[in-house]
Design goal:
The protein is α+β, with helices and mostly antiparallel strands. The protein has a single domain, classed as Jelly Rolls, CATH 2.60.120.10. Helices cover 51% and strands 27% of the residues. The protein contains nine helices and six strands; from the N terminus they run H-H-E-E-E-E-E-H-E-H-H-H-H-H-H. Strands 1, 2, 3, 4, 5 and 6 form a six-stranded antiparallel beta sheet that branches. Helix 4 crosses helix 5. The longest helix has 27 residues. The chain starts with a helix and ends with a helix.
Amino acid sequence: MESLQKAIISISPLSKESMEAFTAVWKQWITQKDFILLKENTVSDYFYFIEKGAARIYYYKNGKEITEWLALDNQFFLSITSFFQRTPSHLIIQVIEPSVVYGIHHDDFMRLADKYHDVERLLRKMVTGSLIFSQIRMDSIQFESAQQRYEKLLQTSPQIVQRVPLTYIASFLGITLETLSRIRSQK
C-alpha cells in the first residue's frame, strides 16, 4: 500500500483525510501469471495499480491479439472508455507474470472525487496523463520508424525487454515479430 500512496502523491498530493479515505477502498489481488483482470465484453469496474508484476491490455483484431498497453511495477492502468462510460470493454486486461495489483472501484472513485476536491484533482490528472500517453503512443506509431519506436522503448522502459514476451512487445510497437527480431539482431 505504501507504493500506491507514493504513486498517488507523485501525481497529485492528497490531504491526510483524503488519502486515508481513498486508500481504504482499494482492493488487492495477488495473482498468478495469466490471471484475467478484465474480460472482453464486460464493464471495467476498476482503475488498477500494479505494485509488482506486469500486465498487458489487449484486444482481438481479425483473430489476432493486439497489445495496446503494457504496465509494469508501480503503474496505473485501466480500460478508460469502459471505466468512464460504463460500457462493455473490447479490451482484455491480463497479468503476464505473478503480480500484486490494487484496484479502486468506479463507484468508490467517483464518490470520493465528489467528496474531496483533491481526489477530484487526482482523477483529472490521472485521466490527463492517460490521454497524453495514448497520444504519444499514436504519434510514435504514425511518425516514427519501427527502429525508432524500439529504441525509445529501450530508453523509457528497458525492463520491458527482460520481462515481457517479444510477441507482446512487437504488437505493442505495431510491428511484426520478424521485424522486431531483425531490429534486435542489428544491435
